[in-house]
Amino acid sequence: MGLVSTAVGLLESFYELWNVLAPEERRDLVRLLVERIDVDPN
Questions:
Q1: Res 2: pLDDT
Q2: CA–CA separation, 10 vs 36, rounded Å?
Q3: Model's pTM, two decimal places?
Q4: Is the dihedral of CA 33, 38, 39, 42 positive or negative?
Q5: Are 26 and 18 in contact (CB under 8 A)?
Q6: Cα separation of 8 and 25, whole Å?
Q7: Cα separation, 16 vs 18, whole angstroms
Q8: Is the alpha carbon torsion for 16, 19, 25, 26 positive or negative?
Q9: Which end of the chain, C or N, has fewer beta carbons within 10 A?
Q10: What ranges in 1-42 are assigned the alpha helix state H?
């Protein structure tokens, strides 16, 4: 349960962090978090 609690706490404060990041920092953070996006056209 410790890892889940930590993850929940980080996600709850994410919006606050996002608001203080510069656009370049936001881009870098998204690139770190998202490895790949697959789209199913159907």
A1: 86
A2: 22
A3: 0.60
A4: negative
A5: yes
A6: 22
A7: 6
A8: positive
A9: C
A10: 2-12, 14-20, 23-33
